[in-house]
């Protein structure tokens, strides 16, 4: 059944929440008193529609229904998740919860996007404090999976667990914080770096651009995949973590940060930062910067997904939950249904020729899995290696297009298997691929017969598919 | 002429420097009194040989000569760059410089890998202080490009500029720091985060693993491609940076970090961190963690390179300086020579079928560039679109293998162009690809004749190549 989320406050953060829920198939009901709320949220949704599906190699669920509501009561109606992303003013948030709780389902979870307030503060005037938690996301919410989940001693005993399970279904990575503390975990680090950065600028040591480069050309890359401690564990080498840390002892006494002190945020310092930032990034609009950032994040996250590492494991695990189920194999079947991600573009501004083959290869993997070529089968017994491909490119495919492939078995004889893919985009045939595969014994990595059961299944599929005729463009492989 | 670098101290950092110089074609002379120095450095070099070339889509220069020397005098002989990566003890470093300067070229640059000392401290007992600078790298030095370059008022007037130019030739990103300060720029941030992290662990708010997740699932990804200020600029939206920062004012007064204070590094705290780190990463050896990290970094950095953004721009710009020069087009020519990067693997443990086509597509881009299909030509006039490919897969290719491709023009008639690629790996033919292209008018994106000059050149090439015969496996495209 379609789930419903209520979004209270539809700015950069609330809009990001709305977009993620919608694109994962939830209905979303928005309350935001700003006259431009609808416009802002639709712009955000446009970006998210290009970005979030680009992380996945399967189609996302059909988009949910988005609606805007003039009152809180209407917005929270039927919602199982209520996300508050109002301005960071405690009283405002507390009042809002009172209104929400006078009408909402007592079983619904009320999550706050607050960066700094602790759950006990948020709960203090509430009718049902146990229902309110911190669910702190990171911008862009439609791409970054981290959610800091924080409760207080008044939080319901299973509320954080329920919240975690629920947010995982929309691809998030909820991190339960053991104990409430101002600014939770991540923002304490951001605040520390921010304070130090203000000093460096104020003292003329570095500009905003130099600071950004000092981050993104070095440790920022490390932190995109391992964090602080695993990075240091590696650097410490076989002598071990304890040895490494104790070496750090003296450094704690050295004047390596100014953080015992807080710079005053004068108008002059603000102007200094703003003008340095203009010099650094002023040639790009915010929309251009957002698009640059999203493209970069998608590329980095996809590269980690291919490895199943760090954030890539979150993506890969989530993708498994929305993988297509095995269809009837006895008729030519859909083996691929996906959006073309941003990193598949080439110098001609369209999907590169190799990506048609990559899409076909994904479709092939899925078909071969369905007939029994599981990871375990590959590790211990056999697999199918491609020996020939014939590709006809019939139409350009652009980034963001949704493509699908149908697979037909042309021939299956013992260790030989010939498959034919029709790749469609926007209703027209964009390419056909004929693929000739040979079954391989994975101990010797040489051609060898597949097990009888697999061979029989393939023979039956090939016979059944023969009834559907020979597709146009077939016959391009196996001539020699 | 081959340049020479002297590496004083061959541990994790010095070894990383040595590997980068070597793989970029420099000769490297190492001095390290440790009895295991040679073994350690060779292990590092093995990792670097897999990793650094995987960032590039062209072959790196032929590797330089590595030699180990028993004395400093011998090691620095003929060196234009002398990199000191000795333990962080000021007196030790100062003594070392005295020995170095008694024999080295006065024009050579002496860079120190120090994390914390300022150049004026390093220079204080030196014969020629002007020759000594800080050149602070980030682990792994063979992958991460950031080098903080710092001088003092005694530093030679053009020394930092010379250092920058020289380090850029080996693919590094030297950042000139405007003013010396303890720990330069990046390590001040690392130290700030480190101190806060110690508090969080000591107070039981989070474990090492939770802290790492709080970083790498959220802001770490942002910092891998934009830094602190550009990220906030985007978050701030069209209201502008000054508006965004002034909002932050109050937060500076809030207790969002403990950084006014320094936790005491007791044995108990050290043990707590070490055992949490074991629970988090203890199932992997340091070598396995290094390999995981390198693979992740390569994937992320390659994804940014494809976009020419952030660290990817550094890579792309450097790659241009080592691009192969145009050979004689009148004989079948090498159009591809590269190592197979880690992210080209598939479920069968070998290079995926689509990557053969990707390699061919790179070769094709290079050939088409040489005949005049420049980015400018594509933007304003025409390009070549592939309409058909026929691929024969003849041998498995593994990650780290070096592959090359020869391109032969089979046919060139007006808007039609047929190319044939022979892809070789370890001396044997691993695949052949026949590619049929059509010239396209980029205004209409429809087939159209190429300019006479380009058509004539192609005709002449096709005629010249005909003398070399029809390759085995040709004839797989253009049948319909």
Helix amount of chain A: 40-55%
Ends distance of chain A: 54 Å
- Biggest interface, chains and residue tallies: A-B, 147 and 147 residues
The quaternary state of the protein chains shown equals homodimer
Q: Which percent band covers the strand fraction of chain A?
A: 15-25%
Per-chain topology:
2 copies of one chain form a homodimer.
Chain A: E1 4-8, H1 12-23, E2 27-31, H2 37-51, E3 66-69, H3 72-75, E4 81-84, H4 90-101, E5 109-112, H5 119-123, E6 132-136, E7 146-150, H6 159-168, E8 173-176, H7 186-202, H8 208-223, H9 228-236, H10 241-248, H11 267-281, H12 286-307, H13 311-321, E9 333-339, H14 353-370, H15 375-380, E10 382-393, E11 402-413, E12 416-425, E13 428-441, E14 446-447, H16 452-466
Parallel strand pairs in A: 1-2, 1-4, 2-3, 4-5, 5-6, 7-8
Antiparallel strand pairs in A: 6-7, 9-11, 10-13, 11-12, 12-13, 13-14
Helix pairs in contact in A: 1-2, 9-10, 12-13
